[in-house]
Specification:
Blueprint lengths: L16 E12 L2 E13 L4 E5 L6 H8 L7 E6 L2 E2 L5 H11 E4 L11 H11 L4 H14 L15 H14 L4 E5 L7 H17 L3 E5 L3 H4 L4 E6 L2 E5 L9
Length: about 250
Amino acid sequence: MSQTQSRPIALDPAHFIRLVGVSKSFQEGERPRVVLDDLTAAIAPGEFVALVGRSGSGKTTVLNLIAGLDLPTSGEIWVGDACLSALSDRDRTLFRRSHIGFVFQFFNLIPTLTVRENVLLTAELSGWREQEAHAQAERLLDTVGLLDRAGVFPDKLSGGEQQRIAIARALCSDPQLILADEPTGNLDADTGAQVLDLLIALARERRKTLILVTHSPDIAALADRVLKLEHGKLVNQAIGQSGNLL
């Protein structure tokens, strides 16, 4: 595992997430391909941030780095008081299970598990007691309006229902951070709007930090702040100052 080369930087308590001089490159043939170049940004606890940019600009790479699924080539990423590059692979996995929830474009529900079992999974992996995990799953299924579907398998659900289950799953371990990668990208416009409203409402109600990747200016405009990836760098983008955020 690579280690960060810079000195640890004290975390500002006003910031839940900090990217400090983060770069990421991938080797392609003889030359590295630079995807992210010296990114520095901070996100406050409970903030809803939209991450925008052209396809292939590295938005998903940013999410993967914040989640600790990958490590930066250089720089530091802090989530809470943890510098992710300083953690072992095992500790990053445990940290991710306890502190981060994921909502994907393609739902990623496990087809051999029931709706209830899919939602329970994150709490169980985080070490919740069985009774508490079941109670949490029931509450969330009720909140997303699918408690009556708890015993069915994902293939019996519509796309919108599957994404609502994915949102419940992401929240079941009570993480501080939700990472959503194009969560409405596989849904029709009306269903996507309903799912997005649910995700944002639940994140705000539970005071979760939400980072959402989107291509849609309308969706980005709902966020507290927009961060735009451009030429491998992050640019703060003020809401309402541009007719075209992308």
